[in-house]
Hints:
The two termini are 41 Å apart. 30% of the residues lie in helices and 22% in strands. By secondary structure, the protein is α/β, with parallel strands linked by helices. The strands form 4 sheets. Strands 1-2-3-13-4-14-18-16-17 form a 9-stranded mixed β-sheet, with helices on both faces. Helix 8 crosses helix 13. The protein folds into 2 domains: 312 residues, Aminopeptidase (3-Layer(aba) Sandwich); 137 residues, Aminopeptidase i, Domain 2 (Roll). The chain binds manganese (II) ion (MN) (2 copies). The site of one manganese (II) ion (MN) has 6 residues, from helix 8.
Amino acid sequence: MKKAEIKKLEKALKHQPRLVWDALKPDQRPELDERARDYKAFLDAAKTEREAVREITARAEKAGFKPLDSDGRSGRRVYAAFMDKVMVLAVTGRRPSSEGLRLIVSHIDAPRLDLKPRPLYEDVNLAFLKTHYYGGIKKYQWMSRPLALHGRVVKADGRMVDVVVGEDRDDPVLTISDLLPHLAGKVQGDKKVSEAFPGEKLNLVVGSLPLGDEEVKERFKLAILDLMHRRWGLIEEDLISAEFEVVPAGPARDVGLDGALIGAYGQDDRMCAYTSLAAILALKDPEYTCVALYVDKEETGSDGATGARSRYLESFLADLMAARGETPSSAALRQTLIETRAISADVNGALDPDYQEVHEKYNAARLGYGPCVSKYTGSRGKYGASDASAEYMGWLRGVFNRNDIVWQSGLMGKVDEGGGGTVAMFLAQYGMQIVDCGPSVLNVHSPFEISSKADLYMTVRAYQAFYRA
Ligand code: MN
Ligand code: MN
């Protein structure tokens, strides 16, 4: 065979994932940069699930979405929030609901530290707040760094107080002190990492000023209570009916001298929340009814009323169908859900250059190669996997290819190494077609996750193509 023929054969037969930067046309660059700027603003405004619901609502209203009203007066672009922690947006299509939806689901919770219901105590002349970490974190990453407090307190009379401290430049921050290396040899250094940092030591320094003289009992704790009372009208018992989330302080940043990456807290999974939001906000007059669902509690197993195992989607759909003049019988709901095509939009762990040994490099997602389609998640014998069908994979691949989307196939980790679950399996229970598809991210679950602006841009385009398919 001649060299030219071999080249031709190679091009025709070999699957060659593309780097988004190579595929990008020069006139797409301004849009990519604007997308990155807007994404960072979204991340800064949405550091908790409640803040994400508020930010998504504001953006939806700006784009002409109305609260869903089952009497049908809200029009074709509607939204609904549930418990301030779940959000759904829908644009109704030309076809009836019974022909199925185009659904993208992402999660708006992220690993963090939650305050315990009775958090405040003092020790060695410092006041502290006790925490319980939420989701899978490497505990040492949360020590010795500035942290911010975001919370909602509900008083016994129902009044609500929202608190944010540590985000403004002039705000104080909280922090968890770590032991000096000089004395850390036995209690940390000689232990396994998983045992060296007990959860009960993740206590936040919250004060060091005493109230009154030495005769006052617990005067450092009392000083903080006094401060919280003067500033927010709170008493200690109010903390029992509160949700305080401790997150890394400060804004999202560009990373690298070329600024082509984004470093920020909570990109798992607000990168998918943002990209699916951008896709649905731009949508006009789709063929099928398009839905963006934002759930909570993914990081702790999707349990609870606001997790993906909750049946809230059914309630929303019933209202949506009623608003369209369709009868939302349970049979009609089941029919709609079974005909639905869905994307479980969650980030994937990108191939880590320093730890390539935990990945299987032929099937690992790479930063910058566009959104990653994972036929299945799970590990060690595909346990806990929602395995998308070849039929559905074929359909989605066709959609992306026809729309010139740069995408990749990728799985998380080696077969025996572990991996992550997503919400796909909980929606698959309805019998819908669903597959995981989201950008890959480095440093996942750390206080500073790293994504590629190229993937951000391409993921919005991929979700747009999916909604229009
Ligand atoms: Mn996730
Ligand atoms: Mn996660």
